[in-house]
Write a structure and sequence with these properties.
82% of the residues lie in helices and 0% in strands. It has 191 residues and is mostly helical. The longest helix has 44 residues. 38% of the residues are buried.
Length: 191
């Protein structure tokens, strides 16, 4: 049960943020967004963000290979959660500098990539055993549901709350990530 909760809820904040972040970047400043053009969003999210995500994931894999998931779980939980704060700042400051916006997205995506390593390693640990392929297929189905279900109501929440309160909400939801990380037992370890 706790393993399924972990799979469904570890990325609960990120599942909401992902659905709204592009809209926030595109919406005009008068509507609470940053007013970027589509090409600019492509640069900061599709290039700079992807580089951050990739580098974070690579670093996560490197450190996890040296110390294991048990050692790196909590730094990865912090890494996937804390950078969400950049969206709170962006929504209040509404900077026009593409470099500054790109730097914020790099930081958030780097943290997400680093923290997501814990999630993927947990799925691999969970799938170990006599039916590895079936267990991994089930785990990835729960992974998809964990992104889809919170994303279904993210738009409604953002319209109701506005960007500023929505991003505060998303950051507060990081408590769920911490809770499921605390509850889960990593197979083959004492935690």
């Amino acid at each position: 049960g706790t393993a399924l909760l972990f799979m469904l809820l570890f990325r609960f904040p990120e599942a909401q943020l992902t659905k709204i972040s592009t809209l926030f970047l595109l919406d005009p400043v008068s509507a609470g967004g940053l007013g970027l053009k589509a090409a600019q969003v492509g640069i900061v999210k599709g290039t700079v963000g992807v580089i951050g995500l990739t580098l974070g994931g690579i670093l996560g894999g490197i450190v996890a290979s040296k110390g294991g998931l048990k050692k790196w779980l909590w730094p990865m939980v912090w890494a996937i959660s804390l950078p969400d704060v950049v969206y709170i700042w962006l929504s209040y400051a509404q900077p026009s500098s593409l470099v500054l916006i790109g730097t914020c997205l790099f930081v958030e995506q780097f943290g997400y990539g680093f923290g997501f390593t814990a999630y993927m390693l947990f799925l691999l640990y969970y799938a170990r055993g006599s039916h590895e392929t079936a267990h991994y297929a089930i785990a990835t189905a729960f992974m998809a549901a964990g992104m889809m279900l919170p994303g279904m109501f993210a738009g409604y929440l953002q319209e109701w709350m506005g960007y500023r309160i929505f991003f505060i909400w998303v950051t507060a939801c990081c408590a769920i990530t911490f809770l499921v990380a605390k509850l889960v037992s990593i197979p083959g370890s004492d935690s």
